Amino acid sequence: MKRSIYLRSVVIYIGVVLISIILSFWIMNVFYIDTIRERLEKDITEVGRQTIALYENSSYADPSEFIANIPTFNYNLILYNESGKAVTPIDNGKWRISSQHIKKVLNGGVVRVNDRTASPPSQLNVGLPFQDSDSRYALFIRPDLSFEENTIKRVMLTTLLLVLIIGSTIFVILMRYVVRPIQRLTVATKKVAVGNFAVRINSKRQDEIGDLSRSFDHMAHDLSHLEEMRQEFVANVSHEIQSPLTSIGGYARVLQDSSLDELERKKYLGIIQKETERLSKLSGNLLKMTTLDADDPMFHLRFYSLDEQLREVIVSLEAMWTEKDIEVQLDLKEVQIEADYDQLSQVWINLLSNSIRYTESNGVISIQLKEKSGEVMVEVRDTGCGIPEEDQAHVFDRFYKADKARSSNGGSGLGLAIVQRIVHLHQGNILLESKVGIGTTITITLPKMKKRKET
């Protein structure tokens, strides 16, 4: 059986209040008795003395007759003779006065008896010696406060019950106010679980539940954005894969025509090979991106010469920039850096490949390396076609292409996304500046030594 927080809270509250009422009633009862006990002892003693004095000044010859006729108001009086027998009123055993106490009073002592086994203070008895001309007596007095006691107890009990009823009613109402946002949050969570990321709580409460609701809204927003990215990623991957697969399939069917001459056959085979390489590159980039997106990507840090690495990358791409008669200008300061050699090689290859791809023949690509305040700065500047201003904010997004017509250039739209991810993993920054018709400048700043995370 499901136990809701609302029901559990109400039960706990009522249980706590009941325990509090019982303890409060007992404590109040005890304190009430202890508070009035001392006063009653003095009052009873004084009543006894006044009773004896009245008898001495009265015309009664028999003390028992006097006691039987005297108005005692809220006190009960009983008189014992020298033999320890009650002469007035008749002792029915409820007084619980021992013979020792009676004997002590008969011998002239004063006795105060407190019977805590019954309901005090009605069981508070005071014994005083009572003597006439012929005999000795023991006069015992007790207060008759049963009505007052019962009245006070009823008032106390009624008050505590009213506290329980009124408090429970108010608590039940207020708990609905507390539990309602939790119920809304539960419903919203179930909707998110089935894929509805548009649900929002929009709570304005300024407490822990409000913080929880706002955290939920933030989570739902992030999940919604993540789902959009996932769908866009799948669509982009499907598109990027479908295009070369369509080309390969089409040219493969053309090659089945036996009437094709050798020159045409080689041409179509070259196209198929190019599209296959494009697919292979896309697959490699996707795998690279997946590896970099891991929670703890494997990095192999070591110290090496960054300027030498840049020269090696430029030499490896020499066939590309010499084919277009591009001039490569170098201004490389000798710098030692701690980084992952292979990862940064991927960065320089992607950046230079882009610059070469989008720089016209006889253009210029300049590479500058400098060091400043424990950081190194690599600037790659080209005289290419440039990137429109409205596209510059998206060039690092996955599968984004500023010029959709360039899809045939072999780019997948993942190169700069991979570059940015590697730079950020090295705790660096990347900055792009571009003007259409003038060229593009990409500046990468890296720490000379990768900062270790504190554990």
TrEMBL record:
Cleavable signal peptide: none
Reactions this protein catalyses: ATP + protein L-histidine = ADP + protein N-phospho-L-histidine
TM regions (residue ranges): 12-32, 155-179
Subcellular location: Cell membrane
EC number: 2.7.13.3
UniProt xrefs under SMART domains: HAMP, HATPase_c, HisKA
HAMP domain residues: 176-228
Residue ranges constituting the Histidine kinase domain according to the UniProt record: 236-450
Entries under InterPro entries matching the protein: HAMP_dom (IPR003660), HATPase_C_sf (IPR036890), HATPase_dom (IPR003594), His_kinase_dom (IPR005467), HisK_dim/P_dom (IPR003661), HisK_dim/P_sf (IPR036097), HssS/ArlS-like (IPR050398), Sig_transdc_His_kin-like_C (IPR004358)
Main subcellular location: membrane
Annotated GO MF terms: kinase activity
Keyword annotations from UniProtKB, A to Z: ATP-binding, Cell membrane, Kinase, Membrane, Nucleotide-binding, Phosphoprotein, Transferase, Transmembrane, Transmembrane helix, Two-component regulatory system, Virulence
SUPFAM superfamilies listed in its UniProt record: ATPase domain of HSP90 chaperone/DNA topoisomerase II/histidine kinase (SSF55874), HAMP domain-like (SSF158472), Homodimeric domain of signal transducing histidine kinase (SSF47384)
Topology in membrane: Multi-pass membrane protein
Role noted for this protein: Member of the two-component regulatory system HssS/HssR involved in intracellular heme homeostasis and tempering of staphylococcal virulence. HssS functions as a heme sensor histidine kinase which is autophosphorylated at a histidine residue and transfers its phosphate group to an aspartate residue of HssR. HssR/HssS activates the expression of hrtAB, an efflux pump, in response to extracellular heme, hemin, hemoglobin or blood.
Protein name: Heme sensor protein HssS
